[in-house]
Structure formats: C-alpha cells, structure tokens
Design brief:
Two copies of one chain form a homodimer. Chain A has a domain of 190 residues: Malate/L-lactate/L-sulpholactate dehydrogenase, NADPH binding domain (Ribosomal Protein S8, Chain: A, domain 1, 2-Layer Sandwich). The first copy, chain A, contains eleven helices and twelve strands. In chain A, the strands form three sheets. In chain A, strands 2-3-4-11-5-6-7 form a seven-stranded mixed sheet, with helices on both faces. In chain A, strands 9-8-10 form a three-stranded antiparallel sheet. In chain A, a hairpin with a 7-residue loop joins strand 6 and strand 7. At the A-B interface, helix 4, strand 4, strand 6, strand 7 and helix 8 of A face helix 4, strand 4, strand 6, strand 7 and helix 8 of B.
Amino acid sequence: MPLLAADQIRQTAERALVRAGVPAPSAVVQVDLWLDAELRGVPSHGLLRLERIVQRIEAGLADPHVTGIHTWQGSSYLAVDGRQGLGPIVANAALARIQERARHSGIAIAAVANAQHIGMLAWYAERVAREGQAAIVLSTSEALVHPWGGRKALVGTNPIAIGIPTGETDPFVMDTATSVVSMGEIHDRANRGQAIPEGWALDADGNPTTDAEAAKRGAIAPFGEAKGYALGLAFELLVASLSGAALGTDVHGTLDTTRLCNKGDVFIVIDGPRVAGLSAYLDIIRSAEPAAGFDAVLVPGERGRANRAARLTDGVVIADPVWARLQQLADGPIQQQQHVLS
Amino acid sequence: MPLLAADQIRQTAERALVRAGVPAPSAVVQVDLWLDAELRGVPSHGLLRLERIVQRIEAGLADPHVTGIHTWQGSSYLAVDGRQGLGPIVANAALARIQERARHSGIAIAAVANAQHIGMLAWYAERVAREGQAAIVLSTSEALVHPWGGRKALVGTNPIAIGIPTGETDPFVMDTATSVVSMGEIHDRANRGQAIPEGWALDADGNPTTDAEAAKRGAIAPFGEAKGYALGLAFELLVASLSGAALGTDVHGTLDTTRLCNKGDVFIVIDGPRVAGLSAYLDIIRSAEPAAGFDAVLVPGERGRANRAARLTDGVVIADPVWARLQQLADGPIQQQQHVLS
C-alpha cells in the first residue's frame, strides 16, 4: 500500500470531485472531511467513499450544487431539507446558522434530512468546539445493527459525537457508533480472510458467527449489549422525529448508488461552556495508573489526533485499490456513465 | 419483605418528609419520584434515599424550601443555582421554564448546579415526552467508575435519559447509567453474600474482582468498554462546563450526609417532534424474532413500565430495613439530631 503525502491525496481527490461536477470550494470541504478520517485512522469514513459519491452525482442521486433549504421552526430550531446535497456542504451551511443563533439564544439545533452521508462526526464537533461552543452531533444510517436479543438488523449504527472546549490547545472530542464495530471493519476482516471476535455479529439467520463473510450478510451487535441498543434506538427515534428521516430498514442511500438518501442528522450547539477545571481533570485521567494489560489511560479522541499529526508529517498509507481508483477518477480516461435517476 | 400497597408507602414517606420540614406539596413530588423508581424495579433510586435526604435537611445540607435561582444566559439557556434544594423540586421548576421557552424557540436547555440528587432520570424524560416534547437529560455523580484501561474511579456513573413522543399511549423512554451496573447493585450483592460477574468492577488496588465486598471499595467498569467510558467522560465534561458542577473525585453530596451537593444536571427540551412512523417501527422491533436465549425483543423502558402497572395493582415489595426506617421516620419517636453544617 502506498505511503503518500497528505497533500498529494488531497489534490488528487479534489480533482476527481471537480471532474464529477463538484464546485471547487465544495470539493475542498468534502475532501477535507474524508482525508481527516484517513489521517485519524478511520479509513471506513475516508476516501473509500469518494467513488460512491461520484457515482451518485452521475446517477442524479446527489446534487453537488445545493446547500439545503433552511426553515426556522422556532427561533432556535433550524429544519433543513438537504435536497440530496453533499453531506458536509449541507451540514456546514446549517451549522453556521445555528452557531450564530446559539451565540444569542444559548442553544440551537439543526435537524437535517435528505443530505448525503455526512462522514465522521468528530470533524464537525471538533470545529465547533475550537470556536468555543459545545456540540452534540447525531446521525442515522442504514439498518445494520440488531436489537439486543434480536436476530435481524433493524437499527442504524447511529453514531454520536460530542465536542467541548477545554482551555487546552485541542478540545475534547469523542465520536462513537452505537454498534460494537463498523460494517467497514467487518468487510476489512472478510477481505483479509480473518475471523471476527465472538459477540461482534450474527449471520443471516440471526445466529452468532465469527465468520466475517457470514457477518457481512447478517447484523452487527450494539455496543454494550442492552445499554448500547437503548442508545442507538433512542438516536434513531430522536433523529427521525426531529428531521423527518426514515427509520430502520427504510433507510437507504449512503451505501448504495441506486436510491435517494433518507437518513437524518442532528446538530445541537450550546454556547458559553466554561473551561475552568476541565484541563486539570483531564490531566488527572491522563496521568492515572493504567490497569494490567494497558500502557496508558487515554482520553477519547487523542489517539486519533496523534495519528493525524504523525501522518501529516510522515505521510498516509492508503489502500491500493482506493488510491488506484482515485487516480483514475481524477486523471484517467472518462468512462461511460449511466443516469439511474434524474 | 413486606408487600405493601403503593399508596401506603406513598403516604408514609410523605409523612416522614413533612415531619422533616418539607412543605407538603414538595413532599408529594419528591416521594412520587422515589416511588416511581420502586414501581419500575429500580430500588437503588427508590425510598432507600429518603433517610439520607432527611439527614441532610437536619444537617442543613439540603434546603426543602427553595426552587433554585434562575438566570437566563441567552434566551434559551437557563442557568440554575439549586441552592441545595431538593432535586426534583429544583429540576421541575427549571423544566417548566424551558418547556415553555422551547414552545417558542424550538429548543431550550437548563443547566443545574447545587441541587440534591435528582433521582431516576426517566421520571423527567417521560413527563416531558407525554407533553409532546422530546427530552435529553444528563446528570453527574460521585466518581465511581474507572476510565477504560485505568485502576481507580475517576468518572461518575453519569446517566442519560431520552424521552420521545411516539403517538402511542406511552412515550419512548430510555434511561441508563454509563457504568456497567450501579453501585447499588454491587451493595445489594454484597449484602446477600453473592459474587459479582467478571468485568463489573475492580478492587481497591485496581485489579479485577468478583468479590462484591472488594468491589464496594474499588471502581465500577464503564459499560461497553472504551465506548461507554468515552460517553461517560463526555457527559462529565459537558455537564460541568455547562452547569459549573464539580468534576471527578471532587464531586460530593449525593451519597453522604456531610458535604454540600456539587454534581450537575442538564435538561434539553426540543419542541415539535413528529410521531409519524415511530409506532409502526417500534411494532416491527416488538414483533421481531428473538435470538437464542431470549424470550422477546424488548423496547427500552417497557419492562419497567409493565412492572409499574403490575405493582400499582398487586402491591410493592419493599426491603424490610427501608420500610422499618420509613415508618420510624414518619411515625416513630423523634430522635436527637445533630447539625453537621448550618
């Protein structure tokens, strides 16, 4: 797998998006989101996703020119119809509005439907927190997770990210799916011919499996058994009831190239969090004695941030097929495209 | 253990609080919160807590006459100094303000410091959801939970509750601590001389233990390993930064009778959630085929609600010492009290 300078990947990916019809400023934003995931070590939310967006644009399922239609439902509640715009373009436009509103009201929410995949939630939470506000970000997905005690996937992987300014150079940012692992990780194990740990997934018949291929056709477990299931289901209901997004197995459009995107995203921005004491508390955690089998007690988000710093200096390892496809989409011969929907 | 009518427990507990100086209307509210926990099967948040509040009132650590000082930080952000008032009295006063505000603004937040323990969060989330609004409730606690990979308790049990109207008779309500189990459950196992499962707790030296007595002096695990730890820590930082509450091992006052209460509570109310499709989706989950070893696929909160309905009809089993103490506090001879602080 090639080790590449981040800027080389960035420029290649931007060329690919511009060639697909994405305005240059939007290509910069969309690629920054994917590259940030690569830099932090979350390739499932990285440049792997570029080809699908290009195909969705070509199929008329994604519109790279829109930022969404904004309707204020109350002075601090922004309802956003994403009109199938690119995830970070629609999300950033909404976030800018509610960040400004929260400076006066103290809190504001944006509920987004009909945008493309918004990617790694930490990217948004970190930026808001760097600007001195707290952020809670929720998103739903295709049903990939089984209810605790169930056999079939009925709930999204429904991640949450929380960003909080701490008075340190970098804010606190946590970002986790409510599934025990991502479907991307299961695909990766399958591609390598590796087994998956017990407790990660069920097969297509709803029985426990350690076979990654079988798990691909089955369902992922919620993290933390009944508690993680309760959280994931709550996020599914909350996001849908606030944004008008679809629910459960009716959700489509972030993993395919044939259907409109109908999951939802919710952003809550809270103004004026106080940083007093936060850094001292985090230092107590960082310096705590690790348990047997651990090298250190970590603060969530900091390993990904260290990865990012190292890779910006040392370069990024990117999967061969992803890099080959990026180059082809950026600079290769133009292929015949088929519009599935208009 | 006696099986008692809910109303008998309610009236006895109300008498005990009124005798301790709690105004009758506030006693009704406080007892309803504790009794609801008993009815749902969460006795750790039930009438066990009454004696401590009586002692705290007598020690001048809890003030049964105040509802908190309200300061609007922005039009939708209510900062509340609880002035050591009773948890549900302070919380209800704040919730009434932000529920009304959210009807105009779409979303509003109350951040509460210096109130007594607010009890089971589902009680608040359910009421807000019954009134047609969505609720997110967070609270912090004494440090009882070890960071994932750590040896000592540095994080609160930091629960979250989410309530959402569904169009059904009852709203969706989930309520879970970010610890794998409550300290109350560990005390209960110790009282019965039972072992605890592997993975629940560390002993005072930070080593894994299945001895409930050793666990009482140690630390509880976060639920869901690193992910639950990340959530619990995020809630600790978010609640403290928004409310001014203490952090980590500086938190006191919900488990003792000697210190002022300095944890924090955050309520977010969101107006106008749409119920379309929610009940049909929940029915798909309820009717899903259960996995091996499960009788049914459950929707979070519904088992507790079924418990409550049954116990309102059939009576409530209450622990002998809790009932004996309730009767003594309500109707027994008045004992000499000592004021620890004034």
